[in-house]
Write a structure and sequence with these properties.
By secondary structure, the protein is of the alpha+beta class. The chain has one domain: Alpha-Beta Plaits (2-Layer Sandwich). Helices cover 42% and strands 23% of the residues. The protein has a 4-stranded antiparallel β-sheet, with no helix packed on it. The longest helix has 10 residues. It starts with a strand and ends with a helix.
Length: 114
């Protein structure tokens, strides 16, 4: 299963509301994420607006495409878009930058055991 880490930037004047919106995400959004292959999904927010997301998935492209086909995702992305900087007309799920994984402790420990 692939580990995916991504970044976005939340507008500094919207940080408190962004945090609040994630204290109780819509139940149908939670189920859609689970059902489309997003596992162990977490968001981390720095005080300067840097948002780091992490999740695991069998197939990133398939998980993104499956979410694209859900009604709840369109509603959620429309509500969340105003919170972000530098989307240039894209939705947040289209505008995040995926980071390359360069180190994983468990993977390197497993390689030692082989």
């Amino acid at each position: 299963m692939r580990r995916v880490c991504f970044i976005l930037r939340v507008r500094p004047d919207r940080l408190a509301e962004y945090r609040e919106r994630h204290t109780a995400v819509w139940p149908d959004m939670l189920r859609a994420l689970r059902d489309t292959g997003w596992h162990d999904y977490s968001l981390f927010l720095h005080d300067d607006g840097l948002l780091v997301g992490y999740f695991r998935t069998d197939d990133l492209a398939a998980s993104l495409a499956a979410m694209e086909r859900t009604d709840v995702n369109a509603r959620w992305q429309a509500e969340m878009a105003p919170f972000f900087e530098d989307l240039d007309g894209r939705r947040p799920d289209e505008g995040f930058t995926v980071l390359d994984e360069i180190f994983n402790l468990d993977s390197q420990l497993e390689a030692l055991d082989d």
